[in-house]
Amino acid sequence: MVDELRPRGTRHAVVVGGSLAGLLAARVLSEHAERVTVVERDRFPEGPDPRPGVPQGRHLHVLIEGGQRALDRLLPGFVDELRALGAPRVGMPEDMVQWQNGQWFPRTDPMVHFYSGPRSQIDWLARKRVFADPRIERIEGTEVTGLIGDSTRVRGVLLRERGTGSGGGTGGATGEGGKSGREPRRLEADLVVDASGRSSKAADWLAGIGAEAPHEEMLDTGLGYATRVFRSPVGDSTTDALGIYVVPGPAQTYAGIVLPLGDGRHLVTLSGVRGDMPSTDEEAFETYARKLPHPVVAEWISRAEPLSPVYGFRQTANIRRRYDRPGRRPAGFLATGDALTCFNPIYGQGMAVAALSALALRDALGDRKRVPTTERVQKALFEASRQAWDISAGADRKMPGATGNAVRGKPMDKATGWYMRRVQDLTPTHPAVGAAFRAAVALTGPLSGLFAPSVARAVLFAPVPEMLTEPPMYRSEH
Fold first, then answer.
1. Cis status of the peptide bond prior to 93, with omega within 30 of 0
2. How buried is 96 (Cβ within 10 angstroms: 0-12 exposed, 13-18 middle, 19+ buried)?
3. Which DSSP symbol is given to 440?
4. Closest Cα to residue 293, out of 434, 95, 59, 98?
5. How buried is 470 (Cβ within 10 angstroms: 0-12 exposed, 13-18 middle, 19+ buried)?
6. 222, 403 in Cβ contact below 8 A?
7. pLDDT per residue over 427-469, tens digit each?
8. CA gap 322, 403 in Å, rounded
9. What is the spatial order of strands in the sheet that 154-161 belongs to?
10. Which of 433, 435, 431 minimizes the C-alpha distance to 460?
11. Does the global pTM surpass 0.70?
């Protein structure tokens, strides 16, 4: 039997998880399958409100340019709709007061832009657009407990309504498991896509049908962060910037960021690594901000009005599940989004990678020159997340106390580390270096652009100019 995922071979596709990655995967699959069903553990809110299934939903999210472009290709006009809802558009470096590696960045003309509105706003817009398609159905308040099929092919999923007991287990092909509560029901499908996020149970599902789980790569800095929403200081004349960012690094592990949410609200996130992370105690929030190498964030907090409790988050490890490698795994099963590769959220890549992965899925399924087998499509999804992994894991590998089986670097890392430190030193002031670096981080340009001749010449020969010693609170101060 040929393992083919072309339209003529797929009558029904199931997407596990109504995350942004799951929604966008469903959007693409609707172009190929007769019917697509999104299975979501939560009940979706009616409006742009947070939901439990997005554990980072109350925390910092930015939609970088790579994600913006991909979303507009998948859902034309999406970014215009986001802007119309009031999502702030932040230009870098002009709109941010930024400290990194012991220096303040000059606020020159923006090279890239990101949107910093609430994550729930983006999810809501995507849900409206995706579920407007009559080919896409949804099952809410229901979890997947296992797969139907065997180690050669997946033929559907086992479902259980949440709150109906523990019956079902991993189930395997028969659906047998614990007897308390209802037995899981079967939902047959020609293709199952796991978009259930960082806490995916796919390893158990695959074991339940006699298949092999993927090898996991993990790198964890022990970073934890706390977030609170504030009303911006009334009549604040201390800065014309839209936000403030104190960036952590190996020598200085504390971070603080102030970003606009719209409607006069700002989100403030503080972070630290294992052993000295911010708590959710409200009185301690501003005190923790004083640990940053400059008081600019703490002073902003002291002038602002708190609007929310302090929310904490600790699951920040980089995890990559290597479905691209050989193994005893079934046809008709794919993983995408955080279920495939999840990143330290501090780098703001997750939503962009979800959208880029959906584009990779579209391209792989639409390739008329090659048969889109499960293996080939999964490798395309892996490649869509590779650059973001290289950025996130590459930076975290240098952090003190990092743990995990992906901590060990490559023999060339010492030389590459020297080169990248020079890139970061020149990014604030050198046009060619800054443009290449920001494009790579925004996922609009390749990492190889950092080694282009004009960039390499600057890295090797250009002097590092004298940097600002105080934060440029106004654009003219650089």
1. yes
2. buried
3. H
4. 98
5. exposed
6. yes
7. 998 999 999 999 999 999 999 999 999 999 999 999 988 888 8
8. 19
9. 142-149, 154-161, 185-188
10. 433
11. yes
